[in-house]
Specification:
Blueprint (H helix, E strand, L loop, with lengths): L2 H8 L2 H29 L3 H29 L5 H15 L6 H25 L3 H26 L1
């Protein structure tokens, strides 16, 4: 998925923040949807634990970003930006998760996308709080990718 990143690369200041948070809310929602499917089909307790961690952490971050959009910029998420992200994720979201290994196979590239977006926000956002959240997302998701790669090999 590259339409989202292409859009973000062109923007700055308020427009960047609104677009980034709008896209990331949708990206997180995609991860939550995959994690919820995983809870129903996973056989391994470690997989269920990782899926629950995604649901809890990313639900919290969505609420934070929705709050900031309203508080800082008096807006809701941009439908246009969310549509770009939906298009980027369409192929992946069209495949329901069927087993443990599919969770790792799909979540690793999904997280890699979030890491790239977060890196951009660390460079481009005018708001320190958002830079810090982006740095945290980058760190958390980079660690989770490593963990998923190990679990996928077991």
């Amino acid at each position: 998925g590259t339409q989202g990143m292409a859009a973000l690369n062109k923007l700055s200041d308020r427009d960047f923040d609104v677009a980034f948070m709008s896209q990331m809310i949708t990206h997180h929602q995609g991860a939550i949807d995959m994690a919820e499917q995983t809870l129903k089909v996973a056989q391994r307790p470690e997989t269920k634990q990782e899926a629950q961690k995604v649901i809890d952490g990313q639900t919290r971050e969505i609420a934070q970003m929705e709050g900031w959009l309203k508080e800082w910029y008096d807006t809701a998420a941009s439908k246009e930006q969310q549509d770009l992200m939906h298009q980027d994720m369409a192929a992946m979201m069209g495949m329901p998760i069927q087993d443990d290994s599919m969770f790792y196979d799909m979540m690793i590239p999904h997280h890699q996308g979030a890491v790239e977006m977060s890196q951009l926000a660390m460079e481009k956002s005018p708001r320190q709080e958002l830079k810090e959240l982006a740095a945290k997302m980058k760190q958390d998701q980079t660690e989770e990718i490593k963990k998923y790669q190990e679990l996928a090999r077991e």
